[in-house]
Amino acid sequence: MESLSGMTTADTHCPYCALQCAMRLSAGDPVTVSGRDFVVNGGGLCQKGWTSAELLAHPDRLTAPLVRQAGVLRRATWDEALDRVVAGVRDVQRAHGRDAVAVFGGGGLTNEKAYALGRFARVALRTATIDYNGRFCMSSAAAAGNRAFGADRGLPFPVTDIRDAGAVLLVGANPAETMPPFLRHLPGERLITVDPRVTATARHGALHLQPTPGTDLALANGLLHLAITEGLVDEAYVAARTTGFDEVRRTVAQWWPARVERLTGVPIADLLATVHRLAAADTAMVLTARGAEQHATGTDTVTAFVNLALALGLPGRPGSGYGCLTGQGNGQGGREHGQKADQLPGYRRLDDPAARAHVAAVWGVDPDDLPGPGPSAYELLTAEKMRALLVFGSNPVVSAPRAAGVERRLAGLDLLVVTDFVLSETAALADVVLPAAQWAEEDGTMTNLEGRVIRRTRLRPPPPGVRTDLEILAALSGRLGAPVSARPREVFDELRRASAGGTADYAGITYERITAEGGVFWPCPAEDHPGTPRMFLERFATPDGRARFVAVDHRGPAEQPCADYPLYLTTGRVLTQYQSGAQTRRIAGLPGRAFVELHPDLAGRLGIADGDDVAVSTRRGSATAPARLSTAIRPDTVFMPFHWGGAARANTLTNPALDPVSRMPEFKVCAARVALA
Ligand code: SF4
User: Fold this and answer.
1) Do residues 666 and 295 touch, judged by C-beta distance below 8 A?
2) pTM of the model
3) E-assigned strands of 394-450?
4) Tell me, what's the pLDDT at 174?
5) CA–CA distance from 244 to each of 247, 307, 660 (Å)?
6) I need a labelling partner for 251 at 20 to 30 A (CA). Which of 86, 325, 350, 406 fits?
């Protein structure tokens, strides 16, 4: 129902993670949130979702643009702020070339915004320097999926297929904390988890493998070795639907069980139980997430688990498969529509002449004028040639690896522009801060972890002085001589045309269909096409229709423990916080503070008691937080959540060693030492 100032209720989805739980917002002071029945969440929400409306009227909310003057941010008019951005961009490009201006996006932006941002960079700025924080999230799984299946959709099947699977191998994911309603799809008695910590999800499952950090690839190759020697390979499937198994068979032959046990610490009996449970089930799933992916070997690690799934005949079989649990709210759609360094809308390659011609025609530009691929996220954020940066929907000062170096680099730019709705750690460094609308104040679409395109519906307009990201991009584009629409529906219709014929084809998806059908799965090439809940049933998206085995072998982490740094450090998430914490740390209903988790045996050796302030140090710096003693972690490993900035910033410590394919940094393992602070 609509009032003069907006709707009295709005059926929408959560502003946070990729599960995209359905919720109803009710106007009032405060706005109230209730869970809404939807297949992924069944009406349930986690603490983050329930409290998400608190930020709409938070005292930290920005309600006017800010510009830096004499070192201090002061309020400004929109005209002054936008003019300063455009003048700064022009100055930098005149002096240093187009690519000296960079754009950094986010996996929480709607499809419309992700699309508009890519177009803004390549048409209005004509810069090749654009990437986004999804590079830090699921890029290794995307790269592995593309090389095995010819397409990357996080889950190429609905979540309900997981609920019905006879066995699920879940690698490096803790949905009990990151997306609790997802557990309704993970029956514990059929769940096998892989994690160096005994997480809430591991406790929920029937079998937990607790490998040494950085050994997942060897673990996967060891599991495949056992599948072969135990006679569990689906030879008919391998022959009919795949290529390349012989070389993989040769590679994993060297990963005999005792060797795997010695390297990973996982008992042979558990390795055997895992492959037998997966092979014995009528339907089975192999799922990966950040724990497997955020490594300098992330693409190969995921590939090793894909190889295991292929050998067992799972991908493309109804009720079975391989999938990646995407993390950010629009981690899926955000990587499909052009804010990624190497891609154009529709998941097209930027270096493909046919793709360039198609998208250039939609944009009304010459294909030769489109820039080529640019640097990946970490390389972009630290590039010496970058002199100006425009950030949308991201807080890299907290979320990037070796964050102190990134912070220094951003502080030294000629121009830093940040669009956000609070003064995040990155915005606090900016020369210009543009206040953006929140999710309840705009329309748009998101694509959840299943590839299901859903509607985000506006409850009310933004507060006076605040604009939507699309309005900001349109205003900047107009000033730069490349006018575009700021209306979500018009942007989406253009996105549909730009994506038509691509891997992520949205041509047949309309706002009306999404509302009427409760979401539409891509690819959906025409309005009379039903969408594609399950991919690869007949053929994979490779030229010959077959999935590709790729032989990969274990390489250790970029850093191993040594005399100076004798421990492994791993990082991750906790129940009450989301990503860099810029939003959730401000919500009173989401308590929590940074901590360092370590085993009591290790703490005893170091004279550390529960609650003591401890300093964790790596070759990149130190971070300090209270100790939390727990037997859930291995005695050779410490864990820090990465949601906090300042002295407790875990990413001060992390290693920016990059995966050679996905350019994913190695967030999940580095060498560290711990001492009383
Ligand atoms: Fe929001 Fe994710 Fe929590 Fe659902 S699980 S309420 S989408 S944060």
Assistant:
1) yes
2) 0.96
3) 415-420, 432-435, 444-447
4) 95
5) 6, 10, 21
6) 325
Which two tokens mark 601?
């045996």
The pLDDT tens digits for 368-382 are 999 999 999 999 999
Pocket flag, ligand 1, residue 590 (CB < 6 Å):
no
Burial annotation 244-282 (CB, 10 A radius, 16+ → b, else e): bbeebbebbeebebeebbebbbbeeeebeebbebbbebe
pLDDT in tens, 53-101: 999 999 999 999 999 999 999 999 999 999 999 999 999 999 999 999 9
User: ipTM value of the model?
Assistant: 1.00
Give the β-pairing of 101-105 and 388-392.
Answer: parallel
Of the chain, the end-to-end C-alpha distance in Å amounts to: 56
- Indicate whether residue 14 lines ligand 1 (CB < 6 A): yes
Q: Does 592 have pLDDT greater than 90?
A: no
Residue 274 confidence (pLDDT): 98
Return the CA Rg of the chain.
Answer: 24
Report the C-alpha gap between 674 and 608 in whole angstroms: 9
Atom of ligand 1 nearest to the CA of 182: 5
Residue whose Cα lies nearest atom 4 of ligand 1: it is 21
Ligand 1 binding pocket includes 49 (Cβ within 6 Å):
yes
Mutate to test the pocket of ligand 1, among 14, 184, 454 (most ligand atoms within 8 A of CB): 14
Q: What is the mean pLDDT of residues 561-575?
A: 96
Does the CB atom of residue 454 touch ligand 1 within 6 A?
no
pLDDT at residue 349 greater than cutoff 60:
yes
Structure tokens at 70: 């004499």
Task: Please report where in the chains the tokens 């490779």 appear, as a residue.
Answer: 542
Closest ligand 1 atom to residue 20 Cα is: 7
Q: Which domains are seen in the chain, by residue range? A: 9-55 (2.20.25.90), 66-136+330-491 (3.40.50.740), 143-325 (3.40.228.10), 567-676 (2.40.40.20)
Burial of 5 from C-beta contacts in 10 A (0-12 / 13-18 / 19+) = exposed
633-664 tens-digit pLDDT: 999 999 999 999 999 999 999 999 999 999 99
Sequence-separated (6 or more) residues with CB below 8 Å from residue 125:
89, 93, 98, 101, 103, 480
Q: Is 325 in the pocket of ligand 1 (CB under 6 A)?
A: no
Name the band, by pLDDT with cuts 50, 70 and 90, for residue 6.
Answer: low
- Of all atoms in ligand 1, which is nearest to the CA of residue 13? 7
Q: Is 45 near ligand 1, meaning CB less than 6 Å away?
A: yes
Alpha helices (H) along 548-659: 600-606
Q: What is the mean pLDDT of residues 339-352?
A: 94
